[in-house]
Fold this sequence. Notes:
Order of helices and strands: HHHHHHHHHHHHHHHHEEHHHHH
Largest sheet: 2 strands, antiparallel
Amino acid sequence: MRLAVVLGVVGQLVRPFALVFLAPMLLALHDGDLALLAYFALTGSIALGFGSLASLRFVRPKTFHRSEALAVVAVTWLVIALIGAIPYALSGLSWIDALFESMSGLTATGATIFVDFDRFGRAIFLWRAMSQWFGGLGVIALFVVVLPRLGIAGRQLFFAEASAAPSDAISPQIRDTAGRLWRLYGALTLLVASLLMLCGLEPYAAALHALTTMSAGGFSPNGQSIAGYQNHAAEWVLVPFMMISGTSFTLLYRALTGRLRGAPGDAEFRAYAMIACGSTMLLAVILAGGAPTLDTLRLAAFQVASLGSSTGYASADYNLWSDSARAVLILVMVVGGCAGSAAGGPKVIRLLLVGKHVQREITRVLHPRAVLALRYKKQPVPDEIVRAVITLVTLYIGGYLLLGLCLVLLGSDLVTGFSAALATLGNIGPALGYAGPMGSFAGFGVASKILMVIAMWVGRLEIVAVLALLHPDVMRNLRWRGASTGR
């Protein structure tokens, strides 16, 4: 792996990112908040300066190896998170708290360190929302738009973030794919904002919630999340769009272009919808103590859609609900959304493939000589993909347990520690206990916050990408420039 190539590409990606800070600068100027204006101007200048220096002598490589693609994705996340933390730090947060908030935003996790929301200006909340919007599908699309201009195989970087499970490509041309993703993502964001304004939310609140809904992020400018607005119409509007944010954007594109036959018949989407509907009904019955009412259906549907898509909004403090109700929510948190969506977690398709694999192995016990092909969409799934899926699901489960254990050993109670592990590694957002939907992650110690920052970063890159970079083959092949063996 050539470090100069990685650093050069990272610089090329970070440099245009400086323009993102113009929006909060303009809002700070409009509000007359000159301090925030200066903070964001400084942050944009640092992003521009770092990007320019890093790419100063960048030369387009003739080849771009997979380890270098993985490194570019991983390092870019870290660099942008560090730069994005600067406005928070200048606004009074400690550096670790600022990095926690920044990483939570860029990974579309939605776990907040904020306690007193009134101490921050509107430009800060705009930046929080924008960071999640870019961290959803925006950053992925940015990668595959910018890289073709550099003469580098953008598809390699796209695969570095894409699911290893089988999926359909929107287009064989990666630039065309990126453009369609941007248009779909942007159009849905504008639609959500418009509908929320029709429901009575002011344009500022509607815009921020639209940005953090389609990114499956969940940051709200209100300390009580959606519950703070007491707007039931807005809650009903957000439910389907949160579900959409957890749906494969490839599938959405096919549906919106008239090829609807593929959507209802897609096994992953069907399972995702069935889990959501079943969990909603079960939760509504538990909340009502019998036949569900319209209010319990609304509460259940909102929380299931929010946590199932890893958005993380809350229309009620479910931390106060019964254990049986919270168990249903933990179930949908573990499952996550669909591959190719903005959602976090192990993804429905992977769990489906693991289930099919287990079923096949049980059948082999009875029929050891049988040739049993594992199929998805009537196509055989290669064994290497099955192995990759099982490995990833195992890493997620092991990661949840290990991180939860570490957080408990560092002083958290059992419920808060393990739910926080699930919330951060799965990029879901709020946990239970004092890190619940109406709480904050500020109560964790510094060591715990550092572990969760790493967990959010690793979880967004789907674990394997980071572990692959630490493989001895990659470490032995590190070079600044010159020849590389291709790893």
